[in-house]
Specification:
Number of helices of chain B: 0
Largest sheet of chain B: 6 strands, mixed
Mean pLDDT of chain A: 93
Order of helices and strands of chain A: EEEEEEEEEEE
Radius of gyration of chain B: 14 Å
Helix content of chain B: under 10%
Helix content of chain A: under 10%
Strand content of chain B: over 45%
Oligomer: heterodimer
Largest sheet of chain A: 7 strands, mixed
Distance between the termini of chain B: 41 Å
Number of helices of chain A: 0
Low-confidence stretches of chain A: none
Mean pLDDT of chain B: 92
Chain lengths: ~110, ~120
Amino acid sequence: KAGVTQTPRYLIKTRGQQVTLSCSPISGHRSVSWYQQTPGQGLQFLFEYFSETQRNKGNFPGRFSGRQFSNSRSEMNVSTLELGDSALYLCASRVGGSRNTEAFFGQGTRLTVV
Amino acid sequence: GNSVTQMEGPVTLSEEAFLTINCTYTATGYPSLFWYVQYPGEGLQLLLKATKADDKGSNKGFEATYRKETTSFHLEKGSVQVSDSAVYFCALSTTNAGGTSYGKLTFGQGTILTVHP
């Protein structure tokens, strides 16, 4: 069974540009969440999608957005990149939306903003 | 709001030593508690979980008991191995005020564990 796939694995972007990251969840999983991981702030929740609807959103500026497609694949977009957006972005998928279900994480996309 | 506090790291141990990583939480609703592990260059993997008070989660020799009275979920292992070297995250997922369950995980800051031969 394939795991959670995130593409690309590494990205280097210039300040002011925008970027789109992709996440393919495990087959049959309907919930996809995104997290930002930095040395200073740790793991912070960005948003969760379930059956193409955003169910929950973290405390990030509007430059961070996402969407989920009918096949459960998800994308997140960051516009007008800032140096502080440099981070590891992790995607997690769950079979359902319950608090009890295990989240399976991808290997992440390492974004560097220069 | 919800929060998770882990003991300060890093933790350095010799092989076969006893491990404890403390974790306490603050949460509304009915939280489920998790320990995730992250190996270098990898995403997070679920190590164990507990979904209600007094539940004990266990996996690969690691254990943690959901203590509602002390709002704690400490991770323990009786004899660590070099291969256990990684970053360990305590996390919770809970319901909102209306009882709706969400998949959002709130993480502690992580504890770096290094085990020497």
